[in-house]
């Protein structure tokens, strides 16, 4: 039976391998400290946080989220440590709440590995505090207990760590904040909840996640949905824990024990303003036949956009359920083996062998059953993808989609843009990929990383740079194609002229705002003009005098492609580039960097805010994006033009023709 604790109350722990689950009304940073019998933390190596998530017997999450799981093995905690304190802190990013009094009271539960709750605690009466010691596990006379603490600190994480005796507490708190920001910068943000009022979810590009995964804006990290807890076949099904009101609802109320329901409430929150296509009736006992555009929305583009994000949610949840089921099977087998071997009489002879074989057989049955459910869900998602992909408009479609062969310059800006594809290892066998869509206009710049990555360490550096430049050109062409003629302009900075070959399609089509800028003077000139544009538009908007802009000011959205950074950049140019990355997107100036971060290592941490402000993409498949729900590492695949295809040139020719008709 669960013990519901109040502040100061303790409860004995009969298990040593535990999980600590956190549910909060907003994304929080979760960490833990080890301390001696006087409550003092001896050093940094006694603090587990997103930048250093593992200590002996302790592991904490790597990023901020509204739901967390911390793993604890009390038998592995060092003898010198007598307390394990669980810490919660609010992130310090822009737009984040700055006090716990402004969000729902955090809830903390200590559970066994099977999900059964041992003790729980709702941290109430918080107001100006931005960090809190939620609870502590402490050792008394060889036994462990849990105590509800709820001690808050208005001075944040630095004040909390200082109170625990850590000498350089403020510095470590700053590093933790940096680690959280880096995690968010590579996160794929989930789509916001779809409500009846809006008729559709608003999709945001990855934010400071990541990208991630977290990934696939704005970052509305409303918190990960709780992963369905696997149940033992011979155990009764437990009722799911109550979900916060802000949290996206699961695709299937039963936690993915059945097939994907293509008419679940998340897809059909209300009667859509424009009727969605009706699905053909399914055969008895068979899943519903997927239909393109079965989500809510005012237009087919909006319905397809929502449907794609519904598929992303479904894939994230069914894989999370599978992984959770496998973890449960592993922990159960380990428990059964430990139990079988704890009796010396069973270690020899046939009794012990039989117990081990039975445990392994049960493990295999649980894993096979979980895989069967996963394969069924993946097959249905693959069937839906096969229907949805051909129906996508150009802005959402891959370069191999036939819709591009009938491309004509649009009359209005689409809702979103496809930046590539996302997939998980479990979905590779079926070739299931989910389009990565970001809302337009772009809310942050992008960085195509031309450096080596762990996923493709064998590719030569020169080849990676060529692929990165090709990705930048294809992305710029896609942006030019989805905007109406004259409403999007592309500038290029190529100080050394090394991108001449890659830029040839844009140059030949005549769709660049000006020839690529070369040399230090060219870099300075382009940055000065775009910085001036940002300043003028900002002043006009803030002063309520948008009609007072100079008549020769180009009001179109602007994209600046920067190659070979930091070559050709002096300190003043670097400052302007950072300014454009921070302030440009709000007034229609966007940055697309093609760079290897190692090339700019001489600047040290000065450029860290620049890299964090940009959505990192890769020219080769890489698992660098994470979603903030369950922390999946999503593999990102760039949207390359098929080899031998001339579709890029054809699209750019149509863009140029439309621009000429507009007199541009």
Keyphrases for this structure?
21 strands; 664 residues; five-stranded parallel β-sheet; twelve-stranded mixed β-sheet; alpha+beta
Describe the structure.
With 664 residues, the chain is an alpha+beta fold. It has ten helices and 21 strands. Strands 1, 2, 3, 4, 5, 6, 7, 8, 9, 10, 11 and 12 form a twelve-stranded mixed beta sheet that branches. A five-stranded parallel beta sheet has the order 16-17-18-15-19, with helices on both faces. Strands 14-13-21-20 form a four-stranded antiparallel beta sheet. It starts with a strand and ends with a helix.
Question: How much helicity do the residues have?
Answer: 25-40%
The computed structural class is alpha+beta
**Count of beta strands:** 21
How many H/I helices? Answer: 10
Task: Give the low-confidence spans.
Answer: 192-275
* Mean pLDDT metric: 82
What's the alpha carbon Rg, rounded to whole Å?
27 Å
């Amino acid at each position: 039976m669960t013990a519901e604790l109040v502040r100061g109350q303790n409860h004995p722990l009969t298990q040593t391998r535990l999980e600590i689950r956190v549910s909060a009304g907003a994304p929080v940073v979760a960490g833990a400290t080890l301390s001696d019998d006087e409550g003092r933390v001896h050093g940094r190596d006694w603090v587990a946080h997103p930048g250093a998530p593992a200590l002996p017997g302790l592991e904490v999450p790597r990023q901020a989220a509204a739901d967390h799981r911390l793993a604890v093995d009390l038998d592995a905690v060092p003898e010198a440590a007598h307390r394990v304190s669980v810490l919660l802190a609010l992130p310090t990013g822009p737009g984040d709440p700055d006090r716990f009094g402004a969000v729902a009271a955090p809830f903390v539960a200590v559970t066994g590995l099977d999900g059964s709750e041992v003790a729980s605690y709702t941290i109430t009466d918080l107001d100006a505090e931005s960090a809190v010691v939620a609870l502590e596990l402490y050792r008394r006379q060889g036994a462990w207990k849990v105590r509800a603490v709820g001690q808050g600190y208005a001075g944040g994480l630095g004040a909390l760590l200082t109170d625990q005796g850590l000498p350089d507490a403020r510095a470590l708190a700053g590093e933790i904040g940096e680690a959280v920001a880096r995690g968010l910068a590579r996160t794929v943000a989930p789509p916001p909840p779809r409500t009846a009022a809006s008729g559709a979810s608003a999709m945001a590009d990855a934010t400071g996640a990541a990208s991630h995964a977290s990934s696939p804006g704005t970052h509305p990290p409303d918190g990960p949905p709780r992963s369905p807890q696997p149940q033992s076949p011979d155990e009764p099904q437990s009722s799911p824990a109550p979900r916060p009101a802000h949290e996206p609802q699961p695709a299937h109320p039963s936690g993915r024990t059945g097939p994907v329901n293509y008419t679940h409430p998340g897809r059909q929150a209300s009667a859509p303003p424009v009727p969605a296509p009706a699905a053909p009736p399914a055969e008895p006992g068979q899943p519903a036949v997927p239909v393109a555009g079965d989500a809510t929305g005012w237009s087919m583009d909006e319905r397809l956009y929502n449907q794609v994000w519904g598929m992303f949610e479904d894939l994230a949840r069914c894989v999370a359920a599978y992984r959770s089921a496998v973890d449960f099977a592993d922990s159960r087998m380990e428990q059964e083996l430990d139990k079988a071997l704890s009796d010396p009489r069973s270690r020899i002879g046939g009794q012990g062998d039989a117990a081990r074989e039975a445990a392994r057989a049960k493990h295999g049955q649980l894993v096979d059953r979980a895989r069967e459910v996963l394969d069924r869900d993946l097959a249905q998602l693959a069937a839906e993808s096969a229907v949805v992909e051909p129906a996508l408009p150009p802005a959402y479609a891959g370069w191999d989609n036939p819709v591009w062969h009938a491309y004509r310059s649009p009359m209005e800006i689409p809702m979103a843009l496809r930046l590539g594809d996302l997939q998980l290892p479990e979905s590779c066998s079926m070739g299931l990929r989910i389009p990565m869509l970001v809302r337009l206009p772009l809310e942050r710049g992008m960085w195509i990383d031309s450096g080596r990555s762990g996923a493709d360490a064998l590719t030569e550096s020169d080849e990676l740079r060529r692929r990165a430049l090709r990705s930048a050109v294809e992305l710029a062409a896609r942006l030019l194609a989805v905007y109406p003629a004259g409403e999007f302009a592309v500038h290029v900075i190529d100080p050394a002229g090394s991108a001449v070959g890659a830029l040839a399609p844009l140059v030949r089509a005549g769709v660049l705002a000006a020839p690529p800028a070369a040399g230090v003077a060219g870099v300075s000139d382009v940055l000065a003009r775009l910085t001036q544009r940002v300043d003028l538009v900002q002043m006009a908007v803030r002063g309520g005098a948008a009609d007072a802009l100079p008549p020769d000011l180009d009001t179109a959205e602007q994209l600046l492609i920067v190659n070979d950074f930091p070559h050709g950049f002096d300190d003043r140019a670097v400052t302007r580039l950072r300014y454009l990355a921070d302030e440009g997107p709000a007034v229609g100036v966007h940055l697309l960097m093609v760079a290897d971060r190692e090339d700019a290592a001489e600047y040290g941490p000065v450029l860290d805010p620049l890299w964090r402000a940009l959505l990192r993409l890769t020219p080769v498949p890489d698992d660098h994006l994470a979603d903030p729900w369950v922390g999946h590492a999503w593999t990102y695949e760039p949207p390359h033009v098929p080899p031998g295809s001339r579709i890029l040139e054809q699209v750019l020719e149509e863009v140029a023709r439309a621009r000429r008709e507009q007199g541009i």
